[in-house]
Amino acid sequence: MTEQDTTQQTRAAITADAVAAPAQRTHPMTSIPSTTPNSSAVASHTDWVAVARALGPGFAARAAGHDAADTFVADNYRELKAHRVFSAGVPAELGGGGASYPELCALLREIAQSCGSTALALSMHMHLLAAIIWRYRQGQPVAPLLQRIATEQLVLVSTGASDWLDSGGRAERVDGGYHVTARKVFGSGSPMGDLLITSALLDDPAEGPTALHFPVPMKAAGVTVQDTWRTMAMRATGSNDVLLDGVFVPEGTVSLRRPRGVWHPFFNVVVAVAMPLIMSVYLGVAEAARDLAIGQLARKRDDPDVWYLVGELENALVTGQSAVQGMVELSADYAFTPDVATANAILIRKTIAAEALMAAVEKALAAVGGGGLFRSMGLERLVRDIHGAQFHPLQPKRQHRFTGRLALGLEPVG
Questions:
Q1: Of 2.40.110.10, 3.40.50.1820, 1.20.58.220, 2.30.30.60, which CATH number belongs to 158-259?
Q2: Which of 69, 81, 165, 276 is deepest in the core (most CB within 10 A)?
Q3: How far apart are alpha carbons 179 and 332 in whole angstroms?
């Protein structure tokens, strides 16, 4: 079967899905329904969860192979591009899919149930896209970039989590801009990335160490993707190191200047648009682990010990679902208030979600027993993948510090 045949079959399945209007995959007490258009929505509005569901079997069939070989999910990215998923959130008037923010979260959650690495890599593109959409809604002049993303299906690559407040690398003034030298880590999706959204430090004689934020084309002179992603979890995200060797950044492309190491209002926006998307991925991973475990427990269903373990699993999963639901609601489909109170509320729920979802997947393994250690079952990979949840900003102890300082009337420290 050719790649064209496969794409045509997938599109046919998506069309059939939309006509049949199948019920969303459900879990006991699941609190995050997939977002679907209401009766007043335009008839042509794409059901992005149906797209993800139709692509899912192919993603799932390839997941173990990518995991075992530490290879990027390039084939899945090609399918996502073919179905214009990279511009799903771009407003329809700019040529995109017009998906709401909750729909993007539901899309990632669905993909994660088939392949966590694909969903996590995509979430890094999606949260950058969401930040641009938020800027568009504030009247900022970003429409041309959104149109390019829709037309060209550009893949955005983030380094924000590793740079965070301090940033990294060095920017030196030159005529018309800066030369940037840096090693950027966790560049998810970098093997097929088009635009790196990053930052570097300028030693400004007047203002002191200043973080500059800017985009860099991945094919620009001096940009090299290193094949460095060898990890315990999420092995197929292609989160490689990206080297910038004297890359020229024009002055006009710098979108933000901020003091190094200080919580800037910019981060209130970052937290609100990024964390619900990212944690929707881990929710999907946990739900996949729960379903897989229940499917394996038929022969042990009369074991009282299993009853307790499954009960604990369900409680932990619902706790995680509720926390992610709260994060999505706080983001209010881009209508959130970009202040530290909103960021704090989301970060608290991020920690609660991460800890609960990790506990749920561990309970799934405990309930299944030793058989869950075999790679062939697939649960072992989900156990590894879920542990990535704790490392996205803010990590638990940093969140506790952040929240505790705010409660005591102190300035936040990220």
A1: 2.40.110.10
A2: 276
A3: 39
